[in-house]
Amino acid sequence: MHLRLVREPGFLIFISQRDRIPRGSKERHTMSRRRQIYEGKAKILYEGPEPGTIIQYFKDDATAFNAQKRGTISGKGVINNRISEYVFTRLSHIGIPTHFIRRLNMREQLVRQVEIIPIEVVVRNIAAGSLSKRLGIEEGEPLPHTLIEYYYKDDALGDPLVAEEHIACFGWCSNDEMQDISSMAIRVNDFLSGMFATIHIRLVDFKLEFGRIWEGDYARVILADEISPDCCRLWDMTTGEKLDKDRFRQDLGGEEEAYQEVARRLGLLQDDAGPSEVLDLSHHRKLRTKK
């Protein structure tokens, strides 16, 4: 495979010939005419080239606190596209069914069209975020065992925490589907914890979404959406520095560098500035202190 370097603000990223869309090509014109299906906080979904497919476009937009805080992280969409492709491909190798088909270019990937189950599945290994606030547990406290939480997907309601009884009562998901979801969530956690540990990153918690794919009258549950620093809490094992969207949520600065560092450690990005200093991010801490 032939690779070339493309410069995004502050970093270099390897892409293959498939990432290129020649000027005036039929594909470029088709992409400009395609029908938008949905726009979310971090992605836009377009009608795919074949029935049952969707094109998922990764934006640089960043939101927090149910979109009450908004901003932009330059190059985030490119990085998240690559990381999500890498993770979903690795998960497929251990038998986790996903919606991912292939990456199309720097910001887009082709995925299977699914019927999204309106439940966000949050897997927690260490106390952080809303769990620490809700229960008064100090951030960074290891949990006695992996905790799985469920949130009802509804922005107007603030994505409330729900119990499995709520899910069954309101028919959001069947009992068999819940068993599949919880089983896959644990397997994904085991795999990702090991994968990130090998690059000295601690997987604190992460969010998953699942969808139904129909095969005749039969539906099965597969992993959907994305897995990236947008939906994972990732801490450097040595320094404890946050390498995820918490840098945006908490006004820590260094969001671009943190996302790039995760991609660099996974072997997806080559920093043209030499060895990365993102592990202590001291420059951004000093800037924050001066404010």
Structural topology:
Layout: E1 3-8, E2 11-16, H1 26-33, E3 36-39, E4 43-47, E5 53-58, E6 61-64, E7 69-72, H2 76-93, E8 100-103, E9 108-112, E10 115-126, H3 129-135, E11 142-152, E12 161-162, H4 164-169, H5 175-197, E13 201-215, E14 218-224, E15 232-236, H6 246-249, H7 255-265, E16 269-270, H8 282-290
Antiparallel strand pairs: 1-2, 2-16, 3-4, 4-5, 5-9, 6-7, 8-9, 10-11, 10-13, 11-12, 13-14, 13-15
What is the rounded distance between the termini?
48 Å
Average of the residue pLDDT scores: 87
> What would you say the CATH architecture of the largest domain is?
2-Layer Sandwich
Q: What amount of the residues lies in strands?
A: 25-35%
Number of helices: 8
**Structure classification:** alpha+beta
Let me know the largest β-sheet: 6 strands, antiparallel
* Rg from Cα: 19 Å
Number of strands: 16
Low-pLDDT windows of residues: 1-11, 14-18, 20-30, 272-279
Number of domains: 2
The general outline is globular
Provide the CATH superfamily of the largest domain. ATP-grasp fold, B domain
